Amino acid sequence: MTTPTLPLFHQNKNPAHPATAGSANTSKVYHIPAFTSFHNPKFKIQNQKSRSPRRPAAAFTLIELLAVITIIGILAGLTLGAAGAVRRHGATSTAKAEVAALQAACDRYYADYNAYPIGTADPTKTNNPTGSTTLFTNLLGSATLTAAPTSKRYFEPKPAMVSGNYFIDPWGYAYGYNSDGTNAPLIWSTAGGGNTNRWITSWPKM
Question: The pTM is what?
């Protein structure tokens, strides 16, 4: 029976034991092909590269950090500005309501006495509680908020609206009051002592 002949890369005669002429030594040594993974040097290099530690992600640069800080500062400024505008608008609305309430209380007082409380506060002053003190005692019927009234009470202020024996606006300034007893009173808030155009008054602005 004839032994089948293998391809060349599957057979190799052992050079250390050359076959003698006429010898029947036909033993062959089989080698694993060089392209297998653990005999291929290229595969070893690629495998080592794949197992090498990854480079850490790049950090932020100084310019990027400064840009982010600048944007945050701008947004914070816009937020604080909007919050301040909301507070000013709320204080203005409160002062308008309180001025109208004081005027209505004066009208009720006039209905009983046929005269308004007399006050001498100067409308050109930014903080003059003199007239407001007279208004306070006449509308409240007592010298202080906690004291028992000795006469009819025409106005019930909130505690935040009272300082000592006069009425104050949301900015902490005394409400101005001026009346000779006959003419309708002038009641005003200086809205924080600023420009007179911002004052909140009981009379129409020209």
Answer: 0.60
